[in-house]
Amino acid sequence: xxxxxxxxxxxxxxxxxxxxxxxxxxxxxxxxxxxxxxxxxxxxxxxxxxxxxxxxxxxxxxxxxxxxxxxxxxxxxxxxxxxxxxxxxxxxxxxxxxxxxxxxxxxxxxxxxxxxxxxxxxxxxxxxxxxxxxxxxxxxxxxxxxxxxxxxxxxxxxxxxxxxxxxxxxxxxxxxxxxxxxxxxxxxxxxxxxxxxxxxxxxxxxxxxxxxxxxxxxxxxxxxxxxxxxxxxxxxxxxxxxxxxxxxxxxxxxxxxxxxxxxxxxxxxxxxxxxxxxxxxxxxxxxxxxxxxxxxxxxxxxxxxxxxxxxxxxxxxxxxxxxxxxxxxxxxxxxxxxxxxxxxxxxxxxxxxxxxxxxxxxxxxxxxxxxxxxxxxxxxxxxxxxxxxxxxxxxxxxxxxxxxxxxxxxxxxxxxxxxxxxxxxxxxxxxxxxxxxxxxxxxxx
Length: 445
Known about the structure:
Elements: H1 3-18, H2 41-44, H3 46-53, H4 58-68, H5 79-95, H6 123-136, H7 141-159, H8 174-183, H9 192-206, H10 209-220, H11 229-233, H12 241-255, H13 260-269, H14 274-290, H15 294-312, H16 326-337, H17 345-358, H18 363-376, H19 379-393, H20 405-418, H21 421-434
Helix pairs in contact: 4-19, 4-20, 5-19, 6-18, 6-21, 7-20, 8-15, 8-19, 9-15, 9-18, 10-14, 12-13, 12-16, 13-14
């Protein structure tokens, strides 16, 4: 679950970390009046630079250098190289396309005020427009600002560092990391391709009228911050941790149901409050329509089979089987037992709804699906990305190592996120794309 969020962020730091960051100065830029006013990397990302200079990134650096920058077989490229190659090859392919429809004069992209339809847009131009709207203009900063606390809280839960949301000392839960590593294992049960296929199919679906109805009905479940059947149900006094696990165990077979009749029967058999069942009815009817879409249901069933199979099996090193389903238990503890604000259902819904309203064009969904298609076409990069994920989250201890990869890498990631890596990275990207003399930069705080 969190691997999909963490790995892209970690990869952005791997090159600097693996090289020891001995030279943080970029080559001189072309002389431009506006560019000369921009600050250097030590000003744009001060906490990141400080973490490297103080040696706080050594654990992650060690894992990268000893396992991810070394070819698995003679003649192959290191896994990190394959992932970065796929990223830059994709961007290069977009850049080689002809100018976008509607571009004026020597411009490559159409004016922001009159972009072409999404299906005719150049992917790089659409990325820039989305970045301009959500980051440079600051209209999507709320979503960014909630992502960092979420990652920080989740990483703190896994590593056991700091205090929980009720100011109690945390204990480590590396069983979550072991589950994530299992999902990245590229076995007969788990394949990264399934996640990409699901993302492609679902982003296409959400652009349809039926997909919009599903979004509206999901938003409707959390529209009342002071009540509502779902909010009342998701409360520790109404739903215990073990009951939450049992509920998920009942819901997953429903989502994997072969037809709408089985979905309906499964929903009717759930012991839920009557008012909650009534509020869930529109969503269940939406899911019935999804069942007819094999481009979504095929990869969804396989992905759920992977997640549930890995999450439900006994934990390594003789841990108590009561700790099974660590991902479900983590979400329950952070959202309900600890009541962490950043995991509050109403707050999350409000942020997502706000982004949807700002991005009325649907650029983010379009770009997510487009990039997933590009990655999906590169089997070598997919396998390498899975290796990177599995390596970083592995709880197995390599020969001669006192700590597992997860014990070395994840505390570094937690420290970087806690000290503003995400916001500093967004600020640096904003400066790189738009310069620094075009007015306020909401991401640079």
